[in-house]
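### Sample
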Amino acid sequence: MDSNRSNKPGRFDIDMSPFRDLMGQMDAFFNESFKQMNSVFNMRPFWVDVNEYDSEVIVTAELPGYKRDEIELEIIGQQLRIAAQADGSQEDKSGRNRSQSFQRTERTIALPFPIPKEETNASFHDGLLKVTIPKKNSERKYLEIDE
């Protein structure tokens, strides 16, 4: 054995592909399990997309199945909170059994500048919420890096 070589394995001495395959299978298992849990517990999570442009930030949230009056928007300094709440009740044909449900889900988006309340606009069409937040003259300053 070469005396210059240490007892520790080198970076490429071990085939890591079985470990990577196992980790990929575990990730897929948990991802699929949690997707199914949403339907089992009748949870309706929503996706949020944030796009930043030169003059504005556009926050888009997919809220299928919700009505406009079930959605609440709140501005708290540099944060936008989107909450959706659904109430429902069902009664069988005989009128003997009645079930009620209540579900609330929310997301909070933090921005690097205070959100101007008066200039921020929101619209909701076909299950898609769009919030347009203008960038006022934020106090961002880019610094030059000296050599």
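The beta strands are 48-52, 56-62, 71-76, 79-91, 98-110, 121-125, 128-134. This sample (Hsp20/alpha crystallin family protein) is used throughout the tutorial notebook.
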